[in-house]
Amino acid sequence: MTRRRTLTIATFNVNGINARLSNLLAWLDYLKPDVVALQELKCEDAAFPREAIERQGYGAIWKGQRAWNGVALLARDAVPVESRRVLPGDASDRQSRYIEAAAHGIVIGGLYLPNGNPQPGPKFDDKLKWMARLHRHARTLVDLPHPAALIGDFNVIPSDLDVYDPAAWKKDALNQPEVRASYARLLEQGWTDALRSVFGSEQVFTFWDYFRQHAERDRGLRIDHLLLNPALATRLVEVGVDRWVRLEPGASDHAPVWMKIQR
């Protein structure tokens, strides 16, 4: 057997893992990613489809939550070595939005950042507080001598380039100046936004809502991100979005986003 020269790392907001399990398994079989971060499991821990995931060749760790949220990390032919399952900084936080582990020699933080709508209001304030906590924890990862990545659904539209119609999303929490500024400050720590670093000024989306055939018309947003610390960024080879998954029957409103890195 020839060993692959690259590792494929992906993130996918499945929008209900049990409701969309066939879509997820078909995509795993197609791409065969080495590490996957999943968001919006929308199930309790006991309902996570562990056996189906293992039959596909993946070990998994997860933190579920009934009806909402829920995050997981999968590793091909391995089990992720968990380091934490909550974002530090708020002992009262009970939402399943962050999980971190080592897999295939890389520290992976998988996250599902709060949506923040409606704004202004308490939910938007909580979003900004969560981002501030993320900043503090990210600083402990960005300067690590070994590779690390923060990947997942950030619920952040970084710029007008990342939305099909900026005016239509002007009032949305994902698109507020404070949110964009917070994301920019995160990158200033030294993180590389993999999709933007490869696609440059080309428009690319990762999410399309279910209205007015937005997916078919490619009227979307870029809110799922792959951030690489300097030790990993130098190994980036390729990045992509599997939009075809979004176009499948019964699909999530997100598409998987992936990168290939040198081993």
TrEMBL record:
The active site is at Y112, D153 (proton donor/acceptor), H254 (proton acceptor). Its cofactor is Mg(2+); Mn(2+). Keywords: Hydrolase, Magnesium, Manganese, Metal-binding. InterPro entries: AP_endonuc_1 (IPR004808), AP_endonuclease_F1_BS (IPR020847), Endo/exonu/phosph_ase_sf (IPR036691), Endo/exonuclease/phosphatase (IPR005135), ExoIII-like (IPR037493). The record marks D224 as: Important for catalytic activity. Probably binds two magnesium or manganese ions per subunit. The record marks H254 as: Interaction with DNA substrate. Mg(2+) binds at N13, E40, D153, N155, D253, H254. GO terms for molecular function: DNA binding; double-stranded DNA 3'-5' DNA exonuclease activity; endonuclease activity; metal ion binding. Its EC number is 3.1.11.2. The record marks N155 as: Transition state stabilizer. Residues 10-254 form the Endonuclease/exonuclease/phosphatase domain. This is Exodeoxyribonuclease III. The gene is xth.
